[in-house]
Amino acid sequence: MDSIIEVQRQTHEEVERFQLALSDILARPNAGHRHNLVNQHKAKDLLSRVVDRTVDLNNLYLDPESERHKEIEILTEKVIPGKQDDLTEFYSRLSRIRTYYTRYPNAAVGGIEEEVAAIVGDEEEAYDDEDDPVARLFTGEESFGRYLDLNTHHTLYCNLKYLTKRLGYLQYLDTLIATKDAPIGHELSKDCKSTKEYEAYLLSLKSYLVSFLDRTQPLDDNDKKLKKMEDEFDQLWEAGKIDDGNGAAETKTNGTPAPAGEGIWCAACHKFYSKQTVYDAHLQSKKHIKAAERLNGESSASVPNGNGTSQPQSRRRVLALLTYQTTALLRSLNSVLMDTKSNVERRFALTSRERELELEEEPVEVAPPAEDGQQEEEEEERIYNPLKLPMGWDGKPIPYWLYKLHGLGVEYQCEICSDQTYMGRKNFERHFQESKHTFGLKALGLPNTKHFHEITKIADALALADKLKQEGRLEIMQTETMEEMEDEDGNVYSRKTYEDLKKQGII
């Protein structure tokens, strides 16, 4: 076994290696959402190993009973004349080391390089979702941390007691987005928010949001954020500025009349009573006693009178704290909620076949604009586009549903424009007013009028021009034949006959 001093030296080396690897990962360029998230999780793994090694080192240095102090005493033992010299212990240990490596010549030394390489990996490394440990942290709905998967919590929300209206998924997301201006559950009744099911729903939603932050922001100290939220809540709770959703802001103790004129609130029965006498009378009823026992976990003998509290302050505080923390977490994730709603609306517009193609297609990672010399190299990177979709304004292929909506898969060819092909009906109709089509018609000696709209063949355009000329001549002849003229005597002639008679001097 290595000496304690060698163990400490090796641990120091491991800490330095992990720190160097950590600096390399953090210095990697921004290569898209997925790559950045993978790098953050690798950095978190390295940080945890640095902390563990540092704690071990600290214990070895501070423990007075550790092997380190014994080792130092042996190595610094004074030489006794006539017994041994100061190199005896050294040669003894050297002999044991040589014997060990003679017996095991292939024994590995250290191994820290392999450990660091296994964590850091290659910068250009590409994982399948089955092999990538970070991808396994997210569901398909979350799309590698881009969106929230709240389907389970939507089900819990719809199964709440005293819920007046069950919302669809998009409407439910709207209520969560609205927490930017109001606390969560603002649309629910007091009876609904005082149930155990609502408390379980809030606890589940808060746990999921904390888990989502841990997975998408691994380098942030989310425990510290929650502790800060709790400290802020304590200050507001002591100042009486927190509404726990059960009338705490209006009724400080159970049985006290509410200023809003709603009556006297009984938290055990979830009811308001119009008068104090009615409230006092119901306290002796069996229904109230059983409800108070379920709520407080106490016997019926400890049921308070009209001046006491039927609902424990601890439960009210826990519910108010859950509401406060969940609302704060939703506000911090408001942009993700908006993206989630947009994604759900987009997926609702897709057909089943389009959803299958979207799942089969690998997501495209688009890096932000590069700096200086890196820009040209990153522009040359090929974007994965197996369906050969047109590129959008952001440099990514447009969605498949938009491609189908505009009919961009249909080709239109125009012979007048030198066999130019136009994708989609909209582009095809627009090109008739463009300069290229006008130039092609002028080359044929034809004007670009509305008569030639939708004409793409040269032969059809020339035939139409001849037909228009013939119709023009016939129209002139018909005009000359059908137009009538009247002389001074009142005789009516056709225009052609009138002009002939006038030339002959008869008229």
UniProtKB/TrEMBL annotation:
GO terms for biological process: mRNA splicing, via spliceosome. InterPro entries: Matrin/U1-like-C_Znf_C2H2, RNA_Proc_DNA_Dmg_Regulator, SF3A3_dom, SF3a60/Prp9_C, SF3a60_bindingd, Znf_C2H2_sf, Znf_C2H2_type. Residues 295-314, 355-379 are annotated as: Disordered. It is found in: Nucleus. One of its GO terms (molecular function) is zinc ion binding. The keyword Nucleus applies. GO terms for cellular component: spliceosomal complex. It holds the Pfam family SF3a60_Prp9_C. Keywords: Nucleus. Residues 261-295 form the U1-type domain. Residues 297-313 have a biased composition (Polar residues). SUPFAM superfamilies: beta-beta-alpha zinc fingers. This is RNA splicing factor PRP9. The lineage of its organism: Eukaryota, Fungi, Dikarya, Basidiomycota, Agaricomycotina.
